[in-house]
Design brief:
Blueprint (H helix, E strand, L loop, with lengths): L9 H16 L15 E3 L2 E3 L2 H16 L2 E17 L7 E16 L4 E5 L8 H14 L3 E3 L1
Parallel strand pairs: 5-6
Antiparallel strand pairs: 1-2, 3-4, 4-5
Amino acid sequence: MGNKGVHWSTEEFKKATLKMNRDIVLGKTNTKPSKMRNVKCECDGIKFDSKKEMSYYLELKLRKQAGDIKDFECQYKIHWMVKCSGLGPPYRTFEKQYCYIADFRVINNDGSVDIIDVKGNKSLTREFKHKAMIVKKLYNIDIKIV
């Protein structure tokens, strides 16, 4: 039995390889697009979920260099623990830790802190609103949306 695979001429193989490499370089892959249609990108070795988030990072870098802000931190995590006890037999209790990851934590020159989340107009999901409400109630922190 012979090989029943695709048989390409040398020229056809070169064309297909060039197209495949070009698609990879341009980011054209067969992966499913993100839910919010964001394009993931990287800058200074930091991965961002969107171009908008990356451009805000670059803006914060410029503001820090200009002395407009004291410092900033990417992917700032806020944790909280939920303890729950069962209502009926066997009366089990459990604990679960939750985490909200804000895009940025900005420390202003006066010492005040801003928690920033970069969102598009479609990305104010129910989950985000719920977590923002919990963070506000537990820590009295308002999450600013940019």
